[in-house]
Amino acid sequence: MHSIKTFWSPELKKERALRKEESARYSLLSDQLKLLNSENQKQALLVRQLEEELRLRTLRGGASLEMQRQMEALITENEHLVREIRILRETIKEFELRLETQKQTLQARDESIKKLLEMLQAKGLGKEEDRAMIQQLQIIAQKQIDDLRLEIQKRDQEILSCTPR
C-alpha cells in the first residue's frame, strides 16, 4: 500500500499544479474582463457625450468633418471592445467548464485508487502479484495522463485561436 501511495503522490501533485495554473489563468482573464468592461463603459459614455454634442452642433448649423471622423473612430473602437469582451466571457466560461471537468476527473481517479487499494488489501496478494498490479496501474495512469494532456493542449490551442492579439 505504501508503494502505491508514493507512486500516485507525484501525479496528484502535478494535477494540483495544473489546477492552480488553470485557476491563475482564470483569474487573469477575469481581471482582463473587468478592465475591458470598465474601458467599454468609459467609451460608451464618451460616445454618448459626443453624440449629444454632435446633435447640438447639427442643430446649430451642422457638424464639422473632424467631429464626424472622431465619432466614427470611437464607434469602431467601442465595437471592437464589445467583441473583445464577448470573447473573454466565452473564454472564461470555457475555463470554468474545464476546471470543473478536471475536478471531476481527479475525484473519479481518487475513488478508483481507493477501490484498488481496498481490493489489494482484501486479496492479500503476494509480492509478484503486487508488482504486476502496480505496473498495470502505472500503465493505465500514464495513458490517462497523456490523454488529459492532449485534451488540455487541444483546448489551449482552441482558446488561443479565439482570443484577439
Automatic annotation (TrEMBL):
A Pfam family recorded for this sequence: Cast
GO cellular component: axon; cytoskeleton of presynaptic active zone
GO molecular function: structural constituent of presynaptic active zone
Record bears the keyword DNA repair: no
GO biological process terms, semicolon-separated: neuromuscular synaptic transmission; regulation of synaptic plasticity
Keyword Coiled coil: yes
Record keywords, A-Z: Cell projection, Coiled coil, Cytoplasm, Cytoskeleton, Phosphoprotein, Synapse
Main localization category: cytoplasm
Subcellular location(s) per record: Cytoplasm, Cytoskeleton; Presynapse
Signal peptide span: none
Coiled-coil region: 33-105
Protein name (record): ERC protein 2
